[in-house]
Write a structure and sequence with these properties.
single chain; Phosphorylase Kinase, domain 1; Transferase(Phosphotransferase), domain 1; Serine Threonine Protein Phosphatase 5, Tetratricopeptide repeat; 38 helices; 43% helix
Length: 763
């Protein structure tokens, strides 16, 4: 451990073990760069012990402001306390690489997502609410933890596109700091669009919670518009506009927005109010965003922009379907030249002057192609006026014409939920089976949106219930994933038993897998009654039970167990459902699984038992549950590590106490190095773990295969409290390691002067 980090650990007074300093050797050699940031790079790395991906954010100290990384270390004591669903977890430091080690977010930043995908309104509302939840948590700490760096590039996305806030607590207003230097620090990080006006005014007050509220207002605008604020403006121009009370243009929010968007826009405007005293608290904001998010509780699909690069594919195309970007032309985009009669026709549509439109439109307009190969019929359908649609159809418009992406007028009508127009098009010969370029049919879109009425109309007009898009997804998969029970019921009434268990090709998941993973109990129950097999495996050999147990869906787990799900099934990593529940700390699910015959000592391919995984993650209640139902606390896994070794290695002091109380052996040695748990605790610089072990008679002079004692390791890492505790409990300062060095010699070599003096004079 580096000297600067050991200094930090020393001041933690017993809680030091909660923040690790990793070495480069803790990670596998293959570091994959996933992002380039202003002051360094972000790598995807894999921890050897956990076998789990992490993100390593490396800081280039030549590019960072003075002592920036030092401030990160100083802030570690605050950051480590922050554990919340919408806040990214920080695992520790890697001083060797001048980096922070944190949770890996598979779907990158919100900034990139907004630029590459079109979100539907429910997803936008959900993301805004989740950001407000995360910020409310930070501000509810005592004292409030200010972010001061809230922007879309610091909002990251997990596997299921839920947000987590990162890079909080790294920017500070320091006593005596000038407004000018603070502004320079902010603008150096590219934050100019998110800085409230009082920061560059004559106001002498340091930034408070209202600073973050203002930034949140800008983030809301970005999510709603999917545009960049003040695009193309210089720093000076932005500062001038903001100081004069100008804000990003709300007219850039798409017109086809739900009515619930209006109160959200009003909230956004309050957040960026010129008078900071009028900005709302996050404690009030979360209530409002929750209410609005609940109203639009249809999970929000989006689609990956296609720019001609066929190699670009979405990693989560299965999660959200492609949707159109069909919008009527803005008035400013339509030439005012009266000779351009075609655009004049579109202008009448955009003004919703349908009477004049029907009087003016002629056959030649019907055949005119527009941008993206859209036809007049596409635009007329999108306008929502059924009478005008029928008029255009009567002018011999091709009812199954397609846009460049393969959207038919019927698909447009389904996306807009225009049921009268859906029926009208079908009655005029629209194909209910024709798909877009990805083979998504109108029925796929209706199922995704949970539009029961549209699904019923389409099925009655010949739509194929088991139609598959190009990766094998049927409409049923979409309904199961998104919790649309009535749609699923309708589709199941038209499907064979074989089709009920059909897998999509991308990940090999059935409808039951999807319903179970997302906790849709009634749909899972419906599928089982229709003959779905609970023991079918997906591409990773996971069953529906694996997915529901890992996600913590207790009632779905109970349903599957009653439906004959096997508790012994293992996935491609050798994990049973019990392993996954233990890893996530779902104690109630562990109890259910064990009561239904799950083996408490089953092993993964690495040899880990559920007890190991609970210990690794510090889930004390889960460990106690496992032990009470037959789990062994002294079981050995990879390299002979016991749960106690893992808990000490991870500095899980409360877990160490629980394991020792359950008769875990404190002096067992692992196979590779011959370490005892006390060696692991000293190496992780976990003073509380060391104390727990010594009160349970851990051997302070235990010698590893390399003749290293716990005192050697404590001296190497420079932890004064641990060295003192070892000496007070009889540690022998004269013992030599395999190189012939005493603990004092090790401290001397590692330049731990205080430890050298301590060992010279004794305790």
């Amino acid at each position: 451990m580096s000297e600067r980090t050991s200094e930090l650990m020393d001041c933690f007074d017993g809680s030091s073990g909660q923040f690790r300093d990793f070495t480069k050797g803790d990670f596998e050699a293959d570091w994959i760069k996933v992002a380039e940031c202003r002051f360094g790079q972000v790598y995807q790395v894999k921890l050897k012990l956990w076998r789990e991906k992490c993100a390593l954010k490396n800081f280039d100290t030549t590019m960072c402001p003075n002592n920036f990384y030092r401030r990160i270390i100083d802030e570690a004591s605050n950051i480590v306390k922050v554990k919340f669903k919408y806040i990214m977890s920080i695992y520790g430091l890697c001083s060797e690489a001048t980096a922070v080690v944190m949770e890996y977010m598979s779907n990158g930043s919100l900034n990139n997502l907004l630029a590459s995908h079109t979100l539907m309104w429910p997803k936008k509302f959900q993301m805004i609410h989740e950001v407000s939840m995360g910020m409310n948590f930070l501000h509810s700490m005592k004292p409030p933890l200010l972010h001061l760096n809230l922007k879309t590039s610091n909002i990251l996305l997990d596997d299921h596109l839920h947000v987590k806030i990162s890079d909080f607590g790294l920017i500070h207003w320091e006593e005596g700091m000038s407004k000018k230097s603070f502004m320079e620090h902010l603008t150096a990080r590219g934050n100019i669009s998110y800085i409230p006006p009082e920061t560059f005014s004559q106001c002498p007050d340091p930034p408070g919670t209202t600073f973050d509220v203002y930034s949140f207002g800008i983030v809301m605008w970005e999510i709603l518009t999917q545009q960049k604020p003040y695009a193309g403006c210089s720093v000076t121009t932005v500062l001038l506009q903001v100081s004069q009370g100008k804000r990003p243009c709300t007219e850039m929010i798409p017109e086809e927005k739900p009515c619930e968007c209006d109160p959200l826009i009003s909230l956004m405007q309050k957040c960026w109010d010129q008078d900071r005293r009028k900005r709302p608290l996050f404690s009030d904001t979360v209530i409002k965003t929750e209410a609005l998010s609940e109203v639009l509780k249809i999970p929000g699909p989006m689609h990956c922009h296609r720019n001609g690069d066929k190699k670009q594919t979405s990693d989560y195309s299965w999660l959200v379907p492609p949707i159109h970007e069909m919008t009527l032309p803005e008035m400013s985009d339509i030439p005012s030249d009266d000779h351009n009669a075609t655009y004049g026709i579109l202008s009448l549509l955009s003004k919703k002057d349908f009477g004049s439109f029907r009087q003016s439109v002629k056959k030649e307009h019907v055949c005119t192609p527009f941008s993206g190969e859209k036809s007049l019929l596409h635009y007329t359908v999108a306008s929502g006026d059924a009478t005008s649609v029928e008029h255009v159809l009567n002018l011999d418009a091709e009812v199954n014409c397609t846009t460049a992406r393969g959207y038919t007028p019927l698909i447009i009508a389904v996306l807009y939920r225009l049921h009268d127009i859906i029926s009208l098009l079908l009655n005029h010969g629209a194909s209910a089976t024709q798909g877009d370029e990805d083979q998504w049919t109108a029925l796929h879109f209706a199922a995704q949106n949970g539009d029961e009425r549209a699904v019923r109309i389409l099925l009655d007009k010949g739509a194929v219930a088991d139609a598959q898009e190009k990766t094998g997804w049927m409409p049923l998969h979409l309904a199961c994933q998104n919790g649309h029970e009535e749609v699923a019921r309708l589709l199941l009434s038209r499907l064979s038993e074989e089709a009920v268990g059909q897998k999509e090709e991308a990940r090999g998941k059935t409808g039951l897998h999807l319903a179970s993973a997302y906790g849709h109990l009634n749909i899972a129950k419906l599928l089982l009654t229709k003959g779905a097999d609970p023991n079918v495996i997906d591409a990773t050999d996971s069953t529906a039970l694996h997915l529901s147990a890992g996600e913590g869906h207790n009632r779905v787990v109970r349903l599957l167990l009653n439906g004959g799900a096997s508790t012994d099934s293992v996935d491609s990593k050798g994990y049973t459902a019990l392993h996954l529940a233990a890893l996530k700390g779902h104690t109630g699910i562990c109890r259910q699984l064990l009561s239904n015959g799950a083996s408490p000592d089953s092993r993964t391919l690495q040899g880990w038992t559920p007890m190991h995984l609970a210990a690794l993650r510090g889930h004390e209640a889960t460990m106690v549950q496992l032990e009470s139902q037959g789990g062994c606390v002294n079981v050995t896994g990879e390299n002979g590590w016991t749960p106690l070794h893992l808990a000490c290695h991870q500095s899980q002091s409360e877990m160490v106490a629980k394991l020792l109380a359950a008769k875990a052996e404190p002096n067992v040695t692992e196979d590779r190095e011959g370490w005892t748990p006390l060696h692991a605790a000293c190496n992780s610089v976990s003073f509380p773990c060391v104390l727990h072990l010594m009160t349970h008679h851990a051997d302070v002079n235990a010698v590893s295969k390399g003749k290293t004692t716990p005192l050697h390791l404590a001296a190497q890492h420079g932890c004064v409290p641990i060295v003192k505790a070892l000496l007070l409990n009889g540690a022998d300062r004269t013992l030599l390691d395999s190189s012939g060095a005493t603990a004092q010699a090790v401290a001397q070599k590692c330049e731990k002067g205080e430890i050298v003096q301590l060992l010279e004079k004794g305790c």
